[in-house]
Amino acid sequence: MRYSLIFCLFALTLSSSIYAEDTDSKTGPLTLLRAHQLSLQYDANARAARLEKVVQQEEIDKAQSAFLPQARLSLYQGRSSTDSQTPGFLGAVSKGHSVYDSSTYSLSVRQSIFNMASYAQYGQAKSETKRSEAALDSALSSLMSRVSGAYLDMLLSAENIHYQEAQKLSIEGQLKQAEQRYKFGSGTVTEINEAKANLETSNAKIIEYKNALENAKRALENITGLYPSEFLCLDPSKLSLDVPQPNRVEDWIANALEKNPDILADEQALHSADYEVDKNQSGHYPTLDLVASRTETNSDTNYTIGSKYWTDAVGFQLNVPLYLGGAVTASVRQARAKFEELQEKNIQHQRDITANVRKYFNEVVNGIAKIQAFNQLVTSNEIALDGTQKAYLAGLKTNVDVLNAQEKLFSAKRDLVKERYLLVFNRLLLKQYAGLIKGTDIEEVSGIFTLPVSNKIVN
């Protein structure tokens, strides 16, 4: 499976020590690509899925063993003593005491000829192995979206701080203007108080955004094992606003139903459950084995002291179940019910994935339109703020009008940034649910994060 190969390639390129003391991270900002590489080794869910695949692969060898000869060597070595009493002539009794060694050596070989349970067990092992491979693919694709989501949350929090601090500088400038106007008799105390109130509100939001940034960093650390002290923000000029290709949601849904690893895992789970039915039904069928043995016996009984026997035997052993108290029938009913339960869960899972593909396809299409609208809104608010500031200086607008115009402008900028990050994330989620996400997608997304974040914002 392709995600399994991706995991192995990354595992080969990474050293075993890539956690918090990773020295490479100290050479520059943490990129999304590097965060993903770290997460492949550190994330517990991905590591557990990889180990589960190893566990399930061993089940095939275990199931195959039922078709191979089973040899057993049995050894017995002991010392025995016998007291005897034998009636003799005219009522005389003859007594004896014997001490002797006895030993038995036996080699037996059994080859299964027909055993329905073994065939079902082998088929079930192969299905479970394929299911674990699909589960690993699912874990790795989910990891791509999880590490991307955590990284984007961190960037969005940093951007919020950036715009809030820029707004704070504007408010501080507006406060100075209001104080100067009041000093020369053209302003009011109300204007000063309004500016101070907005300044305190801005300070509170900065604290809130910094707390969100710290939480986002810790969330990313939980996935990668590395606390990001430096990172890069999105370059809007590199963000493509192209609609998804193919441009029909039905095509994305068809891809999901065919390639989504969760659906593939469900299919293999159904195959495994079907084999479980066969395995339980095999309790009604006979088994046939070829048995061969060689036995060497020395002084095996009281009557053969000092004697040796060599016995060779070859034959077929047929076991026919007649009645087991209804256990087999109950097990078959139980296995069939489990199969039907998995069928219903599979149907619901397909519906959920279809709904998610449709949701994120629409989110991407609508996100592009919203970014274009917010771009225009930012431009309009910049023009409006410039006009309001000029009117304020001319005495036609109040300080409150300027502060409101500033708030609208920075709110529009924050909304625009948020929509950009949402577009990036929704594109990844669309590909994840469609079963199309690859390591190259992370590399491509990482390439649009090139703008440095100042230490003031990060710290």
**Backbone CA Rg:** 38 Å
Number of strand segments: 6
Proper CATH architecture of the largest domain:
Up-down Bundle
| Large-scale geometry | elongated
Main sheet properties? 4 strands, antiparallel
Number of helices: 11
Strand content: 15-25%
The CATH topology label of the largest domain is Outer membrane efflux proteins (OEP)
Distance between the termini: 42 Å
Give the integer mean of the pLDDT values.
Answer: 88
Would you spell out the secondary-structure blueprint of this structure?
Blueprint: H1 2-13, H2 32-42, H3 44-64, E1 70-87, E2 93-114, H4 116-183, H5 189-224, E3 232-234, H6 249-259, H7 261-281, E4 287-298, E5 308-319, H8 327-393, H9 399-433, H10 439-446, E6 449-452, H11 455-458
Antiparallel strand pairs: 1-2, 2-4, 3-6, 4-5
Helix pairs in contact: 1-4, 2-4, 3-4, 4-5, 4-7, 4-9, 6-8, 7-8, 8-9
Textual characterization of the structure:
The model is unreliable at 1-25 and 455-459 (pLDDT under 50). Helix 4 runs antiparallel to helix 9. A four-stranded antiparallel β-sheet has the order 1-2-4-5, with no helix packed on it. 31% of the residues are buried. It starts with a helix and ends with a helix. It is built from eleven helices and six strands. The protein folds into two domains: 2-68 and 118-284 and 331-458, Outer membrane efflux proteins (OEP), CATH 1.20.1600.10; 69-85 and 92-114 and 286-320, Outer membrane efflux proteins (OEP). The longest helix is centred in the first third of the chain and has 68 residues, at 116-183. Helices cover 64% and strands 15% of the residues. With 459 residues, it is α+β, with helices and mostly antiparallel strands.
